[in-house]
Specification:
Distance between the termini: 38 Å
Radius of gyration: 18 Å
Order of helices and strands: HHHHHHHHHH
Shape: globular
Structural class: mainly alpha
Helix content: 55-70%
Length: 277
């Protein structure tokens, strides 16, 4: 499908309700952008909410099944389903980033970076969706929560706030918790899912790096100190303290130093974890 502009194509992808079609359409759009078939960015505004399939049902986080990793299938399916839901939201978050702030006259590299993130998230979703199928499950079988998109709505008017929260709080948290999940999956003999999470985590280091790069860039435009600005924005948009342990090695690989997140932690026992090889 050809698009009159990049943002018109993004709007079509965000509005797509079928999860697999959204992921595939996103990858196709990014391929067109990289091939130079789309040159005009355009000014189409994204929808307030992304298109979603009728399932999964969206519930408060306390009502979503626990993700216990055991030798049984049910807990691993719940884990994979939850991460697939995160990746689906991440597609829309990255696309929204590349569409919502066109009035701020950002460089083309900004759009290129966030489209690359969207492409990664779409690939991750399709990989996890295939993994669910191999376990005789499907995306939508279990309830999920809507916390990620709520964060997007709260920062819809604030580019610096979106950059502070989406990549540098929410996605950075994935760097902290994924190594433990990989270890537990390997311990119960599920190397296939462990390998998938390893791929996702390595890509997410790059996503946090992109978020940090553009956060610093926008701070520079407005002559704002990045560290104090990030502290202020996290306190404004994120509820509660940041939770250690932090994967210092992965965060430093993303150029995201403890000067940012350390002072907002409720404990100071920062613990480093390795990036999967």
């Amino acid at each position: 499908m050809s698009h009159a502009s990049l943002t018109s194509g993004i709007v079509d992808c965000i509005a797509t309700k079928d999860a697999v079609a959204k992921a595939r359409n996103t990858r196709a759009l990014v391929a067109q952008w990289h091939a130079g078939n789309i040159t005009d960015i355009g000014t189409c505004a994204p929808p307030e909410r992304p298109g979603r399939p009728p399932l999964p049902a969206l519930r408060p986080p306390r009502d979503v099944p626990k993700r216990r990793i055991t030798g049984g299938i049910a807990g691993r399916v719940a884990l994979i389903h939850a991460i697939a839901h995160i990746e689906l939201n991440a597609i829309d978050l990255a696309l929204d980033m590349a569409c919502r702030f066109t009035d701020q006259h950002l460089p083309r590299d900004f759009y290129h970076d966030w489209l690359s993130v969207a492409d990664d998230e779409a690939r991750h979703f399709l990989m996890l969706n295939d993994r669910l199928a191999l376990l005789d499950a499907h995306y939508g079988d279990l309830p999920a929560h809507d916390g990620l998109w709520q964060a997007a709505q709260e920062t819809a008017h604030d580019l610096l706030g979106r950059l502070a929260i989406a990549p540098l709080v929410l996605e950075a948290r994935g760097l902290d918790v994924t190594p433990t999940m990989i270890d537990k999956l390997n311990a119960v003999g599920d190397s296939e899912t462990a390998d998938a999470l390893g791929i996702i985590m390595r890509d997410e280091v790059g996503h946090v790096l992109i978020g940090k790069r553009w956060f610093d860039y926008v701070c520079g435009l407005h002559r704002r100190d990045p560290v104090s600005s990030w502290h202020m924005l996290v306190k404004r948009y994120f509820k509660g303290p940041l939770k250690p342990p932090f994967n210092i090695e992965a965060r430093e690989a993303a150029h995201f130093s403890a000067a940012f997140y350390g002072p907002l932690s409720y404990r100071d026992d920062l613990v480093s974890s390795a990036i999967p090889g």
